[in-house]
């Protein structure tokens, strides 16, 4: 009896030990899964951080700027850079912004960088000019250290993200940004785009540097508005338009398709007259195209009023006249 009771007592103890050993195994499995998840997250984020895409650079810098506290800076201490990507400001939009600043102040700080004892404006020229008109003496700003290339790249990329960007400004901004990344000028960028187009159409050997190709492709992929071929074919010709039409396009007073059609007129007086009429009366593209055709001297143009008609007889059938009979020799 005593032996049977001794053998029965350790049995529940063995069950308790098995239960306790199972529970830590489950907890260790959970810990390992959480550690794996933590390790996997930075690996997925690596390609985003190391990507050389151009438009993602401002988003990275804005994250850094959000960590910096804005401070009030006197307008007298702010200087404008020598070259600004934005050349035109809509007077009505500027007037509306001035009214808003007088009522609510500047809600979004401008971006400045230190150059000696002065603070140079990097982004926010429209807010800066509106603050001057509103009579403010100081505005909120974020100040950070930036090189010349970083400041120019940030200003160009921010300019491209504007909603009211017209085709001429967009074309010039894309060329400036590509020239900055490729370390060349506009002519070098245009030459590279033409070379890439010939290579893709099989009309030239592929002697383009891989780094240059990646910069161009990532640039247009990040912009998302237009492809590099459409930019080459449709946007680059805008830069060859007459100066008066370019100024009108920059002001946003006419669509670029209409401007290109008006530019076909060779006489400056006729071009200016049609340009003013197109703006004043909101002429459609079809009306502009018809007026251009009427005024352009084209010797190969067919006058439809003088086309010879085939004669018909009384029954409405075509009549070619009688065929003369051959004389017998």
| Strand neighbour order, sheet with most strands | 1-5-3-4-2
CATH topology of the largest domain: Conserved hypothetical protein from pyrococcus furiosus pfu- 392566-001, ParB domain
Rg from alpha-carbon coordinates? 36 Å
Work out the number of β strands: 5
How many angstroms does the end-to-end distance come to?
156 Å
The helix tally amounts to 14
| CATH architectural label of the largest domain | Alpha-Beta Complex
Strand content: 5-15%
Mean pLDDT: 75
Could you say which overall geometry the principal axes of the C-alpha atoms support?
Answer: flat
Strand and helix map with partners:
Layout: H1 2-8, H2 10-50, H3 56-66, E1 71-74, E2 78-79, H4 91-104, E3 110-115, E4 118-123, H5 125-134, E5 138-144, H6 148-160, H7 167-182, H8 186-200, H9 210-223, H10 228-235, H11 243-250, H12 256-262, H13 268-280, H14 285-295
Describe the model.
The protein folds into 3 domains: 60-160, Alpha-Beta Complex (Conserved hypothetical protein from pyrococcus furiosus pfu- 392566-001, ParB domain); 166-240, no CATH class; 242-296, no CATH class. 57% of the residues lie in helices and 8% in strands. By secondary structure, the chain is of the alpha/beta class. The model is unreliable at 1-63, 299-313 and 317-324 (pLDDT under 50). Strand 3 (110-115) and strand 4 form a beta hairpin. The chain has a 5-stranded mixed beta sheet with strand order 1-5-3-4-2.
């Amino acid at each position: 009896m005593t032996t049977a009771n001794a053998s029965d007592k350790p049995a529940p103890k063995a069950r308790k030990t098995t239960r306790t050993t199972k529970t830590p195994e489950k907890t260790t499995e959970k810990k390992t899964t959480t550690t794996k998840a933590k390790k996997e997250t930075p690996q997925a984020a690596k390609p985003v951080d190391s990507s050389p895409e151009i438009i993602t650079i401002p988003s990275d810098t804005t994250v850094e700027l959000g960590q910096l506290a804005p401070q009030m800076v006197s307008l007298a201490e702010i200087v404008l850079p020598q070259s600004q990507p934005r050349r035109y400001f809509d007077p009505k939009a500027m007037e509306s912004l001035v009214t808003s600043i007088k009522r609510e102040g500047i809600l979004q700080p401008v971006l400045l960088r230190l150059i000696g004892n002065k603070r140079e404006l990097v982004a926010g020229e429209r807010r800066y000019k509106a603050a001057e008109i509103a009579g403010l003496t100081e505005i909120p700003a974020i100040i950070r250290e930036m090189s010349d290339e970083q400041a120019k790249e940030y200003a160009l990329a921010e300019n491209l993200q504007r909603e009211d960007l017209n085709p001429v400004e967009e074309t010039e901004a894309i060329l400036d940004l590509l020239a900055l990344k490729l370390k060349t000028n506009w002519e070098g960028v245009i030459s590279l785009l033409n070379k890439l187009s010939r290579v893709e159409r099989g009309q030239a050997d592929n002697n383009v540097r891989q780094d240059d190709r990646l910069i161009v492709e990532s640039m247009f992929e990040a912009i998302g508005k237009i492809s590099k071929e459409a930019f080459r074919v449709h946007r680059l010709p805008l830069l060859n338009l007459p100066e008066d039409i370019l100024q009108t396009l920059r002001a946003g007073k006419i669509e670029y398709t209409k401007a290109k059609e008006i530019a076909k007129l060779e006489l400056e007086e006729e071009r200016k007259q049609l340009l003013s009429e197109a703006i004043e009366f909101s002429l459609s593209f079809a009306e502009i195209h018809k007026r251009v055709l009427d005024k352009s001297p084209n010797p190969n143009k067919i006058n439809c009023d003088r086309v010879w008609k085939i004669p018909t007889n009384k029954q409405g059938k075509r009549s070619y006249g009688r065929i003369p009979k051959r004389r017998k020799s």
